[in-house]
Amino acid sequence: MSTHDVLITSSNTIITAQSLTEFCDDYLSATAFKDYAPNGLQVDGGRPIKRIVTGVTACEALIDAAIADNADAIMVHHGYFWKGEPAPLTGMKGQRIRKLMQHGISLIGYHLPLDAHPIIGNNATLAAALDMTIIEALYPAETHPVGNIAICTAQSAQSLIAQITQALGRMPLHIAAEYNVDTHNSNRLIERIGICTGGAQDMIEQASLMGCDAFISGEISERTTHIARELGIDYFACGHHATERGGIEALGRIVAQQFDLPVTFIDIDNPA
Description:
10 helices, single chain, six-stranded mixed sheet
């Protein structure tokens, strides 16, 4: 677990969970998205916000870290109340929410709005970390695209693997476009790349349709290997968690600057 503090200053202004959420809703255009979970305030801890912890997922380890940090709010990319999950607050979910309520900690979550934001979104921050420039939507009809197409200096798959490893601190799983070809000796260059962080491996076919040389996401399925080889597109599975650290950390910096609050990003390591 690692932490990163942002703009630790004090303020006499009373900031409620509602006012914090209203700012984030507006900044992220949250109401424009039809999502799989509620965006915004998910648990109201009932006290003014003086200190915030951010993280990728609202797991119990992050809650415990926020309690230790004396935080009044947790902001995450993966919150609670996902479509189709059981409603009762029992078991693991009950334990998490009980800790939040007992310690007066509000939970604020943003899923697709934080993927799609053109400046601080997960795709945008990943592209920036990889020295890529986003040029268009992966699905052109989308007003707020959750997938993007980026360009970079033409490079080999091995070069891109090294760049991803340096940026994310872990080596991606690479499926080569050319089956049974040693990528160390391949002349194939990658320049046009589809990007959608997290669990978007099935968008690889759309990336191929849009003329991409490669597609980057977080996870991989068994079928992804065959799709990549048969469509002739390189695939890089870079980790769901690793590809989605950037957005929530960037949102924390925005909130710190806007409200003059101490915001700490806490990274609960996750190899998936």
